[in-house]
From TrEMBL:
Limits of the Helicase C-terminal domain: 287-488
Compositionally biased region (Basic residues): 268-279
Protein name listed in UniProt: Probable helicase HelY
Domain Helicase ATP-binding: 50-208
GO CC annotation terms, alphabetical: Ski complex
Keywords: ATP-binding, Helicase, Hydrolase, Nucleotide-binding
InterPro entries assigned: DEAD/DEAH_box_helicase_dom, Helicase_ATP-bd, Helicase_C-like, P-loop_NTPase, RNA-DNA_Helicase, SH3_HelY, Ski2/MTR4_C
Organism: Actinomadura darangshiensis
Family to which this protein belongs: Belongs to the helicase family. SKI2 subfamily.
GO terms under biological process: nuclear-transcribed mRNA catabolic process, 3'-5' exonucleolytic nonsense-mediated decay
Domain of life of the organism encoding this protein: Bacteria
C-alpha cells in the first residue's frame, strides 16, 4: 500500500495523479542509471520513493524488515555523488554503521566513503559518510565544517526515536539539520506513519510518505509442540471468503493443558498422589535444531532473552553432538575465523574462549549477544550471511537492523526481562524479531516458530502475529547539553520555538486538538443550556447555584451525622451480652434476634455479633447492619447446652424468642431520625434566601431547573477537559524552562546568554552531562593520575547489570576514592536542585567499573582484569569504549595545556590496547 505524499496540498486531483504516475514510473534519468546497479527489478514502493527524491522531495519510507528500504537510502547516496554533494548515512548502532560502511566501500571504493562512530574515524571528509546518529547531532551543535555541501541525510531505523534512552537524538537531528538538506527516513512498518510524515512535512517541508506493508517473502507462523510443528493459523473458506483462524488443534491442546494443570494443582494440595507429568514438555534446544533441520527450515535464529541462555544453548548443541556443516564448510569456517582474529594475541584468544567458539562455528552453531567480543560477533554475522552457520542463538539486539536474515526465526518465550521486571513481548517487538525470517532472493517463504511451553498461550501468539504494526511514539525531552547549545545558537525564545517543533509536542498537540475541539463543542452547548434555563422573573442560574449550595450542605451534614451514628452504633455493639434481644433495623436480616456471641475483637472494623433470628437462622452481623445505636429490647436465657449447629436447639431458642418478646417489640421500635437540617443555621439561611429569590415563585421553575442541572454537569466536565488541555499544551517548552532554571541557578546560563561554563557543558554529550561539567568546575579530577582519572570518569558512563542492593563495588584507594566520594556528594546536591525545579534527569554515579578501569589503565593483563570484574569480554570492551569517548570529551573541555587535559590523553592512550584496540574497520 502506498499513501499520497504530503506535498500534494493545493494541487488539483489531476495534478496529484500525474505526480503519482511520474513517481511510480521510475523514469527519472538518475533513477534509470541507478537501477542498472541492481540485478533485480525494484519494487513499486522503492521506485516511488526514489522518484520522489529525484523530484526534490524528502521521503519517509515505512516497510517491513527485509523489504529493501535501504535501496532508497542508497539512491540518496547515488544522487549526492552524481550531483557533487554530500550524503550522511546515519544508523542507531555502531555495528550497523560498520556493516553499511563495508557495503558502500564495496560499491563506491574507500576514497568516496567515510565512517564516523565513537570508535572509528575513517575518511570523515568523504562525500559519503556513515555515522551513528549521535555523531551527526554533535556535529550540528558544534557547527562542524564537515556539514558544508551536505545535501542528504539518510536516517536508517528512524523508528528508533521511540527509544526512551536515545530516541531524542533523532528528533534533534531532524529539527536542526539545515533546511537545504533532504531527509530520507527509513522506518519499520508503524501504524501512524502518516502522522509522522505530517510532522516531517511541517518541520522539513515537502515530504513524500510511502507505506508498504507487503513482505517480499511471505511469513508463515507455527508453534512447536514437543517435536511436532503445527501451523498457527488455518484457512477457511475459498476465494474472497478465505479467512485465517487460530488452529483448532492448538486450541484443544491449550484447553487440555489448563485442565491437566488444575488436576495437578489439586494433587499437590491434597498431597496424596504425585502430579501427572506435563503432556507437552518444551523440547530441548538441540531437539529444536534437529527438528528444523529435518523440516528443511535452517538456517535459523533462535531468540533467547538472556546472554547466559544463548551461551548455554551452544554448549547444549555441542554436548548433543550436533553437526550442521560439511567437512569443506568446517575448514572454510576455521580459515575465516583465523584470518579475522590474526591480530589478536594468542594469550588473549585463550582467555576469550576462542577454542570453544571456533569448535561451535565449525559445527554450524553460534551465539550472538552484546557480551561477546565485537570481533567474534562480526565473525558470526559474516559466516551466517554466507550460509556457513546454520543455527544462531541470539538476544533481541540482533533484530536492530543488522543485515542477518534467516529462513526461520524461533522464539522460546513470550516475555523478557527489561532490566526492571519480566514483561510480555509487544506486537512491535514480535514483528521486529520475526521480520528476520525469509531471505529475499533465496527463500520463497519465511517461518516463525514459537516453542510451546508454560505460559505460552496459542491465542496470545496469534494476537502478536496478527498485529502487524505498532504506533511510533516520541520519547523526546530537553537535556542540559541541548539547552545550552540551543540558547547559545538561537537564544532562549527561538530555542523554545524549536523545541515546540518536536514530534513529542506535535503528538501532544494532536491530542490537544481533539480535546480543545470537545471543549468548544461543550461551550456551545453550555450557551444553549443557559439560554433554555432563562426565567423572565430573574437570574435563574444564580438561583440554581443557591440550590446546589443548599444541596451540598445538606449532603455534607447528612454524611457527618451518618458517621456519628455509625460510631455510636459501634460503641453500643461493644456492650452487648449473650442473651440480649435486639432489633436488626433494616435489610434482609431485619427483625428480632438474640445475641449468641458479642463478637468483640473479631474484626478491625468493629464488633461482629453472632445472632439467632426468629427464622432460626444463625448469622454473623456487622456494623453495616446498624445505621444507629442498638439497645437490647429484652433478654432471654440461652441454655448452656445450646449449639448453633444443632437444628433442634435453634428451633427451641427461636420459639422462646417469639413467645417471650411482646408483639409491639416484634413490630419494631423504629425511631425516626432527626432531620439532618432541623438545627443547622447555614441550611436555614440558604432556604430563606431561596424563598426570597424572585424566580422562586415561577410556575416553570422545575423546567428551568432541569436545564440548569444539565448546564452544571456539562460545565464540570468541560472544566476537567480544560485542565487536560492545559496540562498537555507546551509540555516540552515548560520542561525546557525548568532545565534552563537549573542552568541559571548553577551559572551555566546568565539570562539569555551562555556563560563560559555553559559553553564547556555544551561540549559534553553524556547522560550525566551536568555532573561531568560540575566535576570539571569543582576541580575534582585536577590532581589525579591517569588510572585514577579513568576510574572516576567511568562512574559517569557505566551502568551495572547487578541489583542495587548488591555488595558495594571495590574502588581504588587514595585520591581516586576521595574524588569518587566527592562526585557522589556533588550528585546529591544537583539532585536537590533538580527537585526544587521539578525535573529529574541525573541518575546516581555508578562505581561498578571504577576498579576495572583503574587496573586496565594501569596496564594489567586482560585475564586478571576480567577475572576480578565478572564482566564478559563484550561488556568490558563496550564499557571501555564508552569511557574513552567521555575521556575524549573531557580532553576537549579541559583548559588548554592543563594537567587534566594531559592526564586524560594519557588515560586514553593507556586504555586503547589489546582487545579494546581491535576493530573491524582499519
Amino acid at each position: 500500500m502506498t499513501t499520497p505524499d504530503t506535498t500534494s496540498a493545493g494541487q488539483t486531483p489531476a495534478q496529484r495523479y500525474a505526480a503519482y504516475r511520474r513517481r511510480t514510473s521510475g523514469n527519472g534519468p538518475a533513477l534509470l542509471d541507478f537501477r542498472t546497479l541492481y540485478d533485480f527489478e525494484l519494487d513499486a514502493f522503492q521506485l516511488e520513493a526514489c522518484q520522489a527524491l529525484e523530484d526534490g522531495s524528502g521521503v519517509l519510507v515505512a516497510a517491513p524488515t527485509g523489504s529493501g528500504k535501504t535501496v532508497v537510502g542508497e539512491f540518496a547516496v547515488h544522487l549526492a555523488l552524481a550531483g557533487g554533494t554530500k550524503c550522511f548515512y546515519t544508523t542507531p548502532i555502531k555495528a550497523l554503521s560498520n556493516q553499511k560502511y563495508a557495503d558502500l566501500v564495496r560499491r563506491y571504493g574507500p576514497e568516496k566513503v567515510g565512517l564516523l562512530t565513537g570508535d572509528n574515524s575513517v575518511n570523515g571528509e568523504a562525500p559519503i559518510v556513515v555515522m551513528t546518529t549521535e555523531v551527526l547531532r554533535n556535529m550540528l551543535y558544534a557547527g562542524s565544517q564537515t556539514l558544508a555541501g551536505l545535501a542528504f541525510v539518510v536516517m536508517d531505523e528512524v523508528h528508533y526515536l521511540a527509544d526512551r534512552f536515545r530516541g531524542a537524538v533523532w528528533e534533534e537531528v531532524i529539527i536542526h539539520v539545515p533546511d537545504s538538506v533532504r531527509i530520507v527516513a527509513l522506518s519499520a512498518t508503524v501504524s501512524n506513519a502518516e502522522e509522522f510524515g505530517e510532522w516531517l512535512h511541517e518541520v522539513r517541508g515537502d515530504t513524500a510518505v510511502i507505506v508498504d506493508e507487503h513482505r517480499p517473502v511471505p511469513l508463515f507462523q507455527h508453534m512447536l509442540v514437543g517435536t511436532r510443528l503445527y501451523d498457527l493459523f488455518v484457512d477457511t473458506g475459498k476465494g474472497r471468503d478465505r479467512q485465517a483462524h487460530l488452529n483448532p488443534q492448538l486450541t484443544r491442546m491449550a484447553v487440555e493443558e489448563v485442565r491437566r494443570n488444575k488436576v495437578n494443582q489439586g494433587r499437590r494440595t491434597g498431597r496424596r498422589r504425585a502430579p501427572r507429568p506435563q503432556r507437552f514438555r518444551p523440547p530441548a534446544r538441540p531437539d529444536v535444531i534437529e527438528r528444523l533441520e529435518r523440516a528443511g527450515l535452517l538456517p535459523a535464529i533462535t531468540f533467547i532473552f538472556s546472554r547466559a541462555g544463548c551461551d548455554a544453548a551452544v554448549l547444549q548443541c555441542l554436548h548433543a553432538g550436533i553437526r550442521l556443516t560439511s567437512k569443506e564448510e568446517s575448514e572454510e569456517i576455521r580459515a575465516h575465523a583465523e584470518l579475522r582474529t590474526a591480530d589478536i594475541a594468542p594469550e588473549d584468544l585463550r582467555i576469550l574462549g576462542y577454542g570453544d567458539f571456533v569448535e561451535a562455528l565449525q559445527r554450524g552453531v553460534a551465539a550472538h549477544h552484546a557480551g561477546m567480543l565485537p570481533t567474534f560477533k562480526e565473525i558470526v554475522e559474516e559466516l551466517f550471511t554466507r550460509g556457513m552457520i546454520k543455527a544462531v542463538f541470539a538476544t533481541e539486539t540482533l533484530a536492530l537492523g543488522i543485515n542477518m536474515p534467516a529462513r526461520t526465526v524461533v522464539i522460546e518465550k513470550l516475555d523478557k526481562w527489561n532490566g526492571e521486571a519480566h514483561v510480555d513481548l509487544t506486537p512491535g517487538e514480535y514483528t521486529q524479531l520475526t521480520g528476520r525470517a525469509g531471505r529475499r532472493g533465496i527463500d520463497v517463504e519465511g517461518h516463525a516458530v514459537v516453542v510451546w511451553g508454560p505460559k505460552v498461550e496459542p491465542a496470545s501468539v496469534a494476537g502478536l502475529a496478527g498485529t502487524r504494526t505498532y504506533p511510533l511514539n516520541s520519547s523526546f525531552r530537553p537535556s542540559y547539553n541541548m539547552a545550552v547549545n540551543l540558547v547559545g545558537a538561537v537564544g532562549n525564545e527561538r530555542a523554545r520555538t524549536l523545541l515546540e517543533e518536536s514530534f513529542a509536542q506535535f503528538q501532544a498537540d494532536r491530542a490537544v486538538v481533539g480535546l480543545a475541539r470537545q471543549v468548544r463543542k461543550n461551550e456551545e452547548a453550555l450557551e444553549g443550556y443557559a439560554k433554555a434555563a432563562q426565567c423572565h422573573l430573574g437570574d435563574f442560574m444564580e438561583y440554581a447555584a443557591m440550590r446546589r449550595r443548599l444541596s451540598d450542605r445538606e449532603s455534607e451534614l447528612s454524611r457527618e451525622r451518618a458517621g456519628a451514628r455509625r460510631a455510636e452504633a459501634a460503641r453500643s455493639l461493644e456492650h452487648l451480652r449473650p442473651g440480649d434481644v435486639i432489633l436488626v433495623p433494616s435489610g434482609r436480616r431485619s427483625g428480632l434476634a438474640v445475641v449468641l456471641d458479642p463478637g468483640v475483637g473479631r474484626r478491625s472494623d468493629g464488633p461482629a455479633p453472632l445472632v439467632l433470628t426468629v427464622n432460626r437462622s444463625v448469622q454473623r452481623l456487622s456494623i453495616q447492619d446498624f445505621p444507629r445505636a442498638v439497645e437490647p429490647v429484652d433478654r432471654i436465657r440461652i441454655p448452656k447446652s445450646f449449639s448453633p449447629r444443632n437444628p433442634q436447639d435453634r428451633r427451641d431458642l427461636a420459639s422462646t424468642l417469639r413467645t417471650k418478646v411482646p408483639d409491639d417489640v416484634r413490630e419494631g421500635r423504629r425511631r425516626r431520625g432527626d432531620s439532618a437540617a432541623t438545627d443547622d443555621a447555614e441550611i436555614a439561611r440558604l432556604r430563606a434566601d431561596l424563598r426570597g429569590h424572585p424566580v422562586h415563585g415561577c410556575d416553570k421553575r422545575e423546567d428551568h431547573a432541569r436545564w440548569a442541572e444539565r448546564y452544571h454537569r456539562l460545565d464540570r466536565e468541560t472544566e476537567q477537559l480544560r485542565r487536560r488541555v492545559e496540562g498537555r499544551s507546551q509540555v516540552i517548552a515548560r520542561t525546557f524552562d525548568r532545565v534552563c532554571a537549573v542552568l541559571r541557578q548553577l551559572g551555566y546560563l546568565d539570562g539569555d546568554s551562555v556563560t563560559d561554563e555553559g559553553r564547556r557543558l555544551g561540549r559534553i554529550y553524556n547522560e550525566l552531562d551536568l555532573l561531568t561539567a560540575e566535576s570539571l568546575r569543582e576541580g575534582l579530577w585536577d590532581k589525579l593520575g591517569h588510572a585514577e582519572l579513568a576510574a572516576c570518569v567511568s562512574a559517569l558512563v557505566y551502568e551495572s547489570r547487578q541489583p542495587d542492593d548488591a555488595t558495594p563495588p571495590r574502588t581504588p584507594a587514595g585520591p581516586a576514592q576521595d574524588a569518587l566520594a566527592a562526585m557522589v556528594r556533588l550528585w546529591g546536591e544537583l539532585d536537590a536542585v533538580e527537585r526544587d525545579n521539578r525535573v529529574s534527569f541525573l541518575r546516581e554515579p555508578d562505581l561498578g567499573f571504577a576498579w576495572t578501569a583503574y587496573r586496565w589503565a594501569k596496564g594489567d593483563d586482560l585475564d586478571e582484569v576480567l577475572l576480578e570484574s565478572d564482566l564478559t569480554a563484550g561488556d568490558f570492551v563496550r564499557a571501555v569504549k564508552q569511557l574513552l569517548d567521555l575521556l575524549g570529551q573531557v580532553t576537549d573541555a579541559a583548559p588548554r595545556n592543563s594537567h587534566l587535559r594531559k592526564t586524560a590523553r594519557r588515560a586514553m592512550d593507556a586504555m586503547r590496547r589489546g582487545v579494546v584496540a581491535y576493530s573491524s574497520v582499519a
